[in-house]
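User: Please run a holo structure prediction.
Assistant: Happy to. Please share the sequence and the ligand.
User: Here you go; the ligand is flavin-adenine dinucleotide.
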Amino acid sequence: MAGLINAEPPANPDEYRNVMIFLESRNGELKKPGLEMISVGSAMAHKVNEILIGIVFGDKVGDMVKQAGEYGCDRVIGYESPDLKDFRTIPYATLLSDLIVELKPNILLIPATRNGRDLASRIAVRSRTGVTADCTELDVDPNGRILQARRPTYGESTLAEILCKRHRPQMATARPGIFAVPERNPNAKYESEIRKAKIKKEYLRKEIVDFKPKTTVDLTSARYIVSGGLGLGKASGFKLIQELADEIGAYVGASRPTVDLGWIGRDHQVGQTGQSVRPELYIACGISGKAQHLMGMKLSQNIVSINTDPDAEINGISDYIINADLYEAIPKLIEAIRKKKAELKKEAKPEADGKKKEVKEKAAEK
Ligand SMILES: Cc1cc2nc3c(=O)[nH]c(=O)nc-3n(C[C@H](O)[C@H](O)[C@H](O)COP(=O)(O)OP(=O)(O)OC[C@H]3O[C@@H](n4cnc5c(N)ncnc54)[C@H](O)[C@@H]3O)c2cc1C
């Protein structure tokens, strides 16, 4: 295994080809932030007639390698060893650095998760290159094959484009929840290779004795979200938000000030410093729609705003606007949903009764 690698910018950047992505895993399963990079990574690679190479580390990687290929990687390389079962910075960074020396990728993408950020910074230092952290847009210039890494800056008011013209690989971390996971295709064609990793004892400085998952609210995979903002006026307002959420099977989200005030836990926060979400339905109740909040939810498929201010910024991106006091609108909404559910149940009942009768008659015939 190599230690520090090329200290100078490469003499010939043209030797560096293809897009490489590091697919993070936990307990033998690929995690969503890694899968999210496949669509953007493969779009960039194919734009310049190159391929997308997925890298997977773990104890046993066969299933994950297959999964990565079926989700759209053109080539997948898996490294397996019991020492790679859990994320450990030094072994992971050393293996990935070695792969960079071997495969010379033009672009390397890593998810901007906690482990991904830890890994990316080390890889960048070892490779003597730069890394654009927490990107929300990624593209490649087809002429120079230069990565156009874009990320919000100045409190999300501006999108900065950062280029790394001299050093290779061009590295970026991708913000979780921004890029869509592609469709899985069991007939996808891809090359794959599983290698046995030998990890030097001195790299295993950290021993993982136990793993306790943090009981967080994962809003990133929620189908429906009902979020509350300062317009609630008080902590107990979240009871009403929860009631509406329960009625439609939604998760509860929140704006940052409500979290700062201690009205709800931090893992409910949506936005720049919270979670980035893209549910089918996002109902924003008493949320003004400042840039930092919109950053985390503007990709939702359908947005409903309930706000007393007809000029609230969130209305600008909403599909439906309820210009009303949330304490009047939400109970009415809950009532209407309950009524509709009861009607649907009534309609479904005679049909179900009919089916039961048919089954009984058939049984009697026999
Ligand atoms: C570096 C940085 C990072 C940040 N990160 C985040 C982040 O991740 N997420 C985030 O949310 N914010 C974040 N913020 C804060 C952000 O700038 C806004 O301050 C915040 O989003 C506003 O929250 P709000 O919409 O709940 O409150 P407000 O802006 O005060 O809006 C309250 C809204 O409620 C409406 N309203 C009032 N009463 C009622 C009622 N009875 N019925 C219906 N509507 C009513 C009002 O018309 C208003 O539109 C960040 C700020 C900074 C500087």
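The longest strand covers residues 146-153.
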